[in-house]
Design goal:
This protein has 4 helices and 9 strands, in the order ββααββαβββββα. With 189 residues, it is α+β, with helices and mostly antiparallel strands. It has one domain: Beta-grasp domain (Ubiquitin-like (UB roll), Roll).
Length: 189
């Protein structure tokens, strides 16, 4: 596999183009429901070269099935979180893959009852900032977390490839990033 010189990604790959799945199911395209499907095994090591195997295994253990990593912003910095997952699990994923987010796990129930993960977000196309529970809010392209709940710490690293990387269409915002096409079922033998 050829890697590009400046960002550690396979040659020609972009972060907006992350696609794949772990586990044996895929979310129905355009829906929040999961259906039995094929595994497209997203090889996270190719995209996060510094992530160790244990962190990748931990990430795949905690996540719901996903088909892509979608761009959002945390405190103004661009990050990529797995679709079909909560913001809470997405931030845990980003922390495992990059070390930029740490979480004080003792503060949270991850079930919506403690209300400690209340964060402020701005949805794409809206100027309103709303309070949501990170554990109950799904990741969506273009979403911006303007205030993390206490217990989440975001430390932006120097030289992040995600800040300088161009999207496939640089005239589009993160919210307008290309969506993943539907996944075709494999032929039945």
């Amino acid at each position: 596999m050829v890697r590009s010189r400046n960002n550690g990604l396979p040659s020609g790959a972009t972060l907006d183009g992350f696609t794949g799945s772990h586990h044996g199911t895929l979310p129905q395209h355009g829906s929040n429901d999961c259906v039995t499907g094929i595994s497209l095994a997203l090889d996270l090591k190719h995209y996060f070269a510094d992530a160790d195997d244990a962190s990748i295994a931990d990430a795949n253990e905690i996540l719901r099935p996903y088909t892509s990593l979608v761009p959002i912003r945390v405190d103004g910095a661009r990050v990529f979180l797995p679709d079909n997952n909560s913001l809470w699990r997405g931030m845990q994923f980003w922390g495992l893959m990059t070390g930029e987010i740490t979480i004080d796990f003792g503060l949270f129930c991850i079930a919506g009852t403690c209300k400690n993960c209340k964060s402020r977000i701005k949805r794409p196309g809206s100027d309103d900032r709303v309070s949501v529970l990170a554990c109950q809010t799904r990741v969506e392209p273009g979403l911006e977390i303007v205030r993390l709940a206490p217990g989440f710490v975001f430390r932006k690293k120097q030289g992040r490839p995600w800040d300088t990387m161009e999207s496939p269409d640089t005239t589009k915002s993160d919210a307008q990033a290309p969506s993943l096409p539907p996944v075709a079922e494999p032929p039945v033998a």
